[in-house]
Write a structure and sequence with these properties.
Blueprint (H helix, E strand, L loop, with lengths): L2 H42 L2 H15 L3 H11 L9 H26 L3 H9 L4 H31 L11 H12 L2 H33 L4
């Protein structure tokens, strides 16, 4: 193991890791927003929009992120729509993550007893107020372990961003291997980089699940 090589190129992985976190964070926040809206549509059973949401979920979850990125980066310019690799990464991650977040929120919403909704309505709250003050807060707490798992999954999926010339950690790894043939050192830095990003999130997810079991929000 060439530690001098590792030390020399650590800064490149740090910059790439920051870019990965930046794009990943934006995509995850947007996917959570999509998840809340989509799960609300399914929960309230809006006929027309429900069909659109279901089609979106099936399309998103049954196509690889790499294919979605290729469509955004190489396909859309054919019809005059050209986005930077960063924007394509954010859109792709949001498109994929939104479907997983919808399913996570939907399953949490279904655990809320319908009598709570009826009770809130009987107290004079309208549908929006009931959803905002009664249903969503409880379902969000219940879905937190699932959200954490989705966040980890989406951050791992960022490893395919290098396919659209996005200078993430995987791109740097391939570049270093191609230039210097330092396969072991490059892969070591790649694994270490993802561990530094993902391990704290994973540990937090375990802690969160235990806390929710303790307070009675989980079985």
């Amino acid at each position: 193991m060439d530690w001098e090589f590792i030390t020399e190129h650590t800064s490149e992985f740090i910059h790439a890791g920051i870019l990965t976190l930046k794009i990943g964070s934006i995509g995850i926040v947007l996917s959570i927003i999509v998840g809340i809206i989509g799960s609300w549509i399914l929960y309230e059973n809006f006929k027309f929009f429900k069909s659109i949401v279901i089609c979106y979920i099936e399309l998103s979850r049954n196509t690889p992120l790499l294919v979605q990125l290729f469509f955004l980066y190489f396909g859309l310019p054919k019809i005059g729509l050209k986005f930077s690799p960063e924007i394509c990464g954010i859109i792709g991650l949001t498109f994929l993550g939104g479907s997983y977040m919808i399913e996570t929120f939907r399953s949490a919403l279904e655990t809320i007893d319908k009598i709570q909704k009826e009770s809130a309505m009987s107290l004079g709250l309208n549908k929006w107020q009931t959803m905002r003050y009664v249903i969503l807060p409880q379902s969000f707490v219940i879905s937190l372990p699932g959200i954490t798992a989705n966040i980890i999954f989406l951050l791992k999926e960022t490893s395919v961003f290098s396919a659209i010339a996005l200078v993430d950690m995987m791109f740097i790894t391939k570049d270093l291997i191609g230039l210097y043939y330092k396969t072991e050192e490059s892969l070591f830095m790649l694994v270490l980089g993802y561990l530094i990003i993902l391990l704290p999130l994973s540990l937090f997810g375990v802690y969160l699940e235990r806390r929710l079991k303790y307070v009675g929000y989980s079985n």
